[in-house]
Amino acid sequence: MINRRQFMALASAATASLSMPISTASAKSDGAGKFPEDFIWGAASAGHQVEGNNVNSDIWLLENVQPTLFKEPSGDACNSFELWETDLDLCKALGSSSYRFSIEWARIQPEPGFYSQAMLDHYKRVIEGCHKRNMIPMVSFNHFASPKWFAAMGGWTNPQAPQLFADYCRRAAAELADGIGYAVTFNEPNLLRLLKVIGLPPFVWDMQGKMLDAAAKAVNSDYVSCLNAARIEDLDTMNPLLIEGHKLGRKAIKSERSALDVGFTLAMLDEISDGSDGGNKARDEMRDYNYGAWLAVQETDFIGVQNYERVVLTDDGKLPVPDDAQRNHAGRWVEPTSLANCVEYTYRTTNKPIIVTEHGIGTENDQQREWFITESLRHLQQTIQNGVPVKGYIHWTLLDNFEWVSGYTEHFGLHTVDLQTFERKQKPSAKAYSRIIKRNRV
Ligand code: FCB
User: Fold this and answer.
1) In the predicted model, is pLDDT for residue 84 greater than 50?
2) Fewer Cβ neighbours under 10 Å: the N or C end of the chain?
3) Domain boundaries in the chain?
4) C-alpha–C-alpha distance, residues 400 and 230, integer Å
5) Which class for 12: exposed (0-12), middle (13-18), buried (19 or more C-beta within 10 A)?
6) What's the pLDDT score for residue 6?
7) What is the DSSP letter of 34?
8) Model confidence at 73: pLDDT above 60
9) Ligand 1 centroid vs 413 CA: distance in angstroms?
10) What's the CA gap between 237 and 239, in Å, rounded?
11) Protein residue with least CA distance to atom 1, ligand 1
């Protein structure tokens, strides 16, 4: 087994070779640490995590059954459904040129046969609010949560799912597409595959199955399944249906406005080999399982890269996190070279434009966040300078929010939120990020 120092030498050699100029790339930074003039900066959110009271959604259902994997229910979340203007102001105050958020399918289509004009109008106002503040609205049509009725039909295990999703996309796009800057069909449709390879313990999958059974009982369904909570044996059925859903959803959105860029985002690990044959093989297999089918999709105008962590693969499996490595809240390995590695790999594999649609760190130590943002952006800038066309960087996340199964205990935000008064306060890391944005350089 190699030690940490030997590994670091290998890893930096691997990164250096990845950093060789890519000749055909178009977007170049302006050199000397600068990002390109038109580089998009921003912060991200997701409806279910901040809006509150997403009562017709499948995730709300899962939060409120017994047994549940969720530490606590989302409840009012950050009350962003009411306070969206405050959030846009906070995002703008960073110097952002974009705000990423999701429209909630469960609000727009709470019943299979009913589209809510009032909810579509709400999201139209949010989009207009972005324009008023000179921010490009980057809009996800699905960020994990779906309507309860959709999950009760088996969610993404049901062959009708792609068409049902496309119908919703079409209706929402008819009202909203004109104002959207970039559209995302799915956020991290590969998340469960990635969690599988990270090695979620069997009891968690087991518990997930029991939670889904309880949800099915609660809504009188034979089978409930959700995008980010499903049974391990369904993952291979879901993947092609999600890909089909992306293709049909994108077509539906483009049928309302053909010039709109529509892509998807992927959950990406920075999987690295220690240089051994076994490590290389494990890395390639892991990448193939996590992203292979998605990176082969031609029908996309960009790919959203979302990276949080690193894994190192050896002849004997995964390298334990070295003692002197930086860890996040969950104890997993974080390195500032990881984002650039993921971006580079995605571009080399697909030749598609890249947007970093999420990147951040769950930590109670805001200085660690500041360090992580700054150093990750330093490496990202070098990658752009070497010719990888990265259009923008959207930090996850604007606010401390409802972090899915972890409830309100994991904090990725640039701002704290008081869950009683909903008061937001800027953290020092937000100031540091804002300085980078305003200078357009690290
Ligand atoms: C990503 C999700 C996002 C948030 C971050 C921490 O996987 O897309 O909603 O939970 O992780």
Assistant:
1) yes
2) N
3) 31-439
4) 26
5) exposed
6) 45
7) B
8) yes
9) 11
10) 6
11) 267
Pairing type for strands 98-102 and 136-142 reads parallel
In this prediction, residues 346-352 reach a mean pLDDT of 98
For the chain, give the longest Cα–Cα distance: 61
Ligand 1 mutation target, pool 184, 404, 411, 414, most atoms within 8 A of CB: 404
CA–centroid distance, 398 to ligand 1, in Å, is 12
- For the stretch 415-425, pLDDT in tens is 999 999 999 99
Nearest partner of 215 among 203, 231, 204, 199, judged by Cα: 231
Residue 412 Cα, ligand 1 centroid: separation in angstroms?
9
Which residue minimizes the CA distance to atom 7 of ligand 1?
A: 267
Q: Are 268 and 259 in contact (CB under 8 A)?
A: no
Q: Give the H/E segment covering residue 307.
A: strand 303-314
Write down the architecture of domain 31-439 according to CATH: Alpha-Beta Barrel (3.20)
- 260, two tokens: 């709109």
Ligand 1 center from residue 45 Cα (angstroms): 9
Lookup: tokens for 71: 């530490």
How close is the Cα of 20 to the center of ligand 1, in Å? 31
